[in-house]
Amino acid sequence: MGSLQMAALEGGSKLELESESLVSSSSFPREKYSFHEAPQVTLYVRNRVLNSIKTVVFSSKINLLMPFGPLAMLANKLFNSQGWVFLFSLLGIVPLAERLGYTTEQLACFTGPTVGGLLNATFGNATELIISIYAMKRGMVRVVQQSLLGSILSNMLLVLGCAFFSGGIVFSNREQVFNKASATVDSGLLLMAVMGLLFPAVLHSTGTELHIGKSALALSRFTSCVMLVAYASYLVFQLRNQNNQYVPVGENQAESPTEGSSNDEEGPEISMWESIIWLSILTSWISILSEYLVNAIEGASKDLKLPVAFISVILLPIVGNAAEHAAAIMFAMKDKLDISLGVAIGSSTQISMFGIPFCVVIGWIMGIPLDLDFQLFETATLFITVLVVTFMLQDGTSNYLKGLMLILCYLIVAASFFVHMDPSRMDPSLVGIVVLQRVNPVNLDSDAIFEEWICLRLRNEESDVTQRLLNLKQSYFTCGFRVSQAFVSLFNKF
């Protein structure tokens, strides 16, 4: 009897350990169940699963948009309208991106503040990276570049602006403060990213490449590796200074009356393992819809009469940044502006220092010539945006006026891309004018101009325009350019 009792006790203890490992969490009390209470354990696990589904799927009103995901798949099979497929996919990704941010926040409750901020930035940008990878697989290099650029602009202007504005409205009687040292580090990284994008664009735009079509690509790949090393160093710096990140600036701030709100922090609503499982499910579902979204971009541009550049820079990033947008506003309204900055500026830093170089390296592996030459217009837009945001962050305070200014700046950027003609989609005759402007009129060489013209088209990955250019006879260009040379010589004589 004693041995049987010992065996029963051992079996019961094993069952206890297994049940604890399945449902244990720092936010839920651990209960011990005997061998005869196994059905209760099963019932408890089932209730936890149902409660997790209820919390993640049915707790947010934005989840009413989830049916648009299956509708996009249905529209792709039944209808021939790429515009509807694009809109349904776009709307279907919005709640998934928001829920991805929610589950990331739940997982961040079990980590430190720095790791939590990095998790928010990582999975908040997962949507953009997934869309970029699918676009690269289809050879849509400009869509990849513009969507990543738009993500940076959206985070720095729209997301941060809405956070400053909403926080300033709630706390209109005073200025909100944030960690100026952390903002300075992020601003420095953003300026480094601008440097990495500026040199290939200027090198190509000025026509000073040593090897046309190759030098900018080689420089981009080298710069991308350097930027990845810099971002890794930034992560190490953050993790080693964990106690100084996303917290009030100094001792004077620690005595402010608003700090008491930190004691009212809400605990996690789902366990750590539930968060990890939901992250996997949501990421997979976003990947499926991203494929439909990317495949419908060009068709939607024609159906909706919108430029591809506007769709890539404005519409796609707004969907991908839904999680950051909601989180930044929520934390700003709770007077936790450091976390809002960690989400908005941290996400921009990760896209610029990790997302873009990562895509360049992945394209290198896949044999896709993705470089850091984002064209002069896009690079100048990013440079001016970083300067504006750096100026806004330099004093370590925020108010609703700063937020409104950032939002208005984003509207200007959106309007600019609405009327912007992407160089890769310009008419061949316009490209010829650009080429003529880049060549010394005294030493016009028709063969060199023709080769450079073709290289320009090849660099921009426009197969239809490239094929038309290649089919034109070189003698046609030679005749035209010699006539131009004659006019130039005649003009020089006078």
Question: How would you describe what is shown here?
Answer:
The chain is an all-alpha fold and 494 residues long. It has two domains: 66-257 and 268-425, Up-down Bundle (A middle domain of Talin 1); 429-493, no CATH class. Helices cover 74% and strands 1% of the residues. The protein is built from 21 helices and two strands. Strands 1-2 form a two-stranded antiparallel sheet. It is globular. 40% of the residues are buried.
Short description:
One of its GO terms (molecular function) is calcium:proton antiporter activity. The chain contains 21 helices and 2 strands. The chain has helices at 2-23, 38-57, 68-78, 82-108, 113-124, 126-137, 141-170, 180-205, 215-240, 251-254, 272-295, 297-304, 308-320, 322-333, 337-366, 376-393, 400-418, 428-438, 446-459, 463-471, 474-493; strands spanning 176-177, 397-398.
Helix-strand blueprint:
Elements: H1 2-23, H2 38-57, H3 68-78, H4 82-108, H5 113-124, H6 126-137, H7 141-170, E1 176-177, H8 180-205, H9 215-240, H10 251-254, H11 272-295, H12 297-304, H13 308-320, H14 322-333, H15 337-366, H16 376-393, E2 397-398, H17 400-418, H18 428-438, H19 446-459, H20 463-471, H21 474-493
Antiparallel strand pairs: 1-2
Helix pairs in contact: 1-2, 3-4, 4-5, 4-11, 4-12, 4-13, 4-14, 5-15, 6-7, 6-11, 6-15, 7-13, 7-14, 7-15, 7-16, 7-17, 8-9, 8-15, 8-16, 9-15, 14-15, 16-17, 18-19, 19-20
Unreliable stretches covering 5 or more consecutive residues: 1-11, 13-33, 245-264, 427-446, 460-479
Class by SSE composition: mainly alpha
Report the span from N to C terminus. Answer: 120 Å
Radius of gyration: 27 Å
Output the helix-strand order: HHHHHHHEHHHHHHHHHEHHHHH
Helical content (DSSP H or I, runs of 4+): over 70%
Strand content: under 5%
> What is the CATH architecture annotation of the largest domain?
Up-down Bundle
The CATH homologous superfamily of the largest domain corresponds to NCX, central ion-binding region
The mean pLDDT is 76
| The CATH class of the largest domain | Mainly Alpha
Strand order of the largest sheet: 1-2
User: Which fold name corresponds to the CATH topology of the largest domain?
Assistant: A middle domain of Talin 1
From the spread of the alpha carbons, the general shape counts as: globular
Total beta-strand segments: 2
Total separate domains: 2
Biggest sheet character? 2 strands, antiparallel
Count of discrete alpha- or pi-helical segments spanning 4 or more residues: 21
